[in-house]
């Protein structure tokens, strides 16, 4: 079976996450909630985690209740008392915030993946490659075109 790069990254991410979820469930103390875990995860992880959650439930009989949103929104909900067994953040700063506020168990923290900013141009673009460096003038590159990103105050775009 062959995968293109995005599919391969998704498959690898899924495998790592299944192992991580299994470790969390196996090492968690027994409780009435043994057959259910609640996952708060960054919205950018939804496609991969939906598949992972289904596979995990099938293999373990543990139901996964997943809630997706910006990492900032999720950790703020946890700070307000929302219960989550797993917090999968797409932003290390928000994970650090959770750690400093004692909202996560530091001995269970694992930095699984990373991300990087990419630029996508139209199919008929004349651009060959672009080097993104400090003080890069993205607006000049876009000219009269559009630029779309996540809210840089809430998501790790460009960090």
**Total of DSSP H or I helical runs spanning 4+ residues:** 5
CATH overall fold name of the domain at 5-108: D-Maltodextrin-Binding Protein, domain 2
Helix content: 25-40%
The mean pLDDT is: 78
CATH class of the domain at 5-108: Alpha Beta
Helix/strand order: HEHEHEHH
The tally of strands reads 3
Whole-number radius of gyration? 18 Å
If you had to describe this structure to a student in words, what would you say it looks like?
This protein has 159 residues and is α/β, with parallel strands linked by helices. The chain has a domain at 5-108: Periplasmic binding protein-like II (D-Maltodextrin-Binding Protein, domain 2, 3-Layer(aba) Sandwich), CATH 3.40.190. It has 5 helices and 3 strands; from the N terminus they run αβαβαβαα. The chain has a 3-stranded parallel β-sheet. α2 (46-60) links the parallel β1 and β2. The protein is elongated.
Write the layout of secondary structure elements.
Elements: H1 5-27, E1 36-42, H2 46-60, E2 63-69, H3 71-79, E3 86-88, H4 92-100, H5 138-142
Parallel strand pairs: 1-2, 1-3
Question: Key features?
Answer:
159 residues; 11% strand; alpha/beta; three-stranded parallel β-sheet; D-Maltodextrin-Binding Protein, domain 2; single chain
Q: What is this entry, summarized?
A:
With 159 residues, the protein is α/β, with parallel strands linked by helices. The protein has helices at residues 5-27, 46-60, 71-79, 92-100, 138-142; strands spanning 36-42, 63-69, 86-88.
């Amino acid at each position: 079976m062959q995968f293109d790069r995005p599919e391969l990254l998704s498959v690898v991410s899924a495998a790592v996450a299944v192992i991580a979820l299994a470790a969390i469930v196996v090492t968690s103390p027994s409780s009435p909630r043994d057959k259910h875990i609640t996952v708060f995860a960054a919205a950018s992880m939804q496609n991969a985690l939906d598949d992972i959650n289904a596979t995990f439930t099938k293999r373990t009989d543990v139901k996964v209740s997943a809630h997706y949103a910006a990492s900032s929104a999720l950790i703020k909900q946890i700070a307000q008392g929302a219960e989550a067994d797993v917090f999968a953040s797409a932003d290390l700063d928000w994970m650090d915030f959770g750690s400093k506020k004692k909202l996560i168990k530091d001995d269970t923290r694992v930095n699984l993946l990373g991300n990087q900013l990419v630029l996508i141009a139209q199919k008929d673009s004349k651009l060959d490659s672009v080097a993104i460096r400090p003080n890069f003038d993205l607006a000049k590159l876009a000219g009269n075109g559009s630029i779309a990103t996540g809210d840089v105050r809430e998501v790790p775009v460009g960090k």
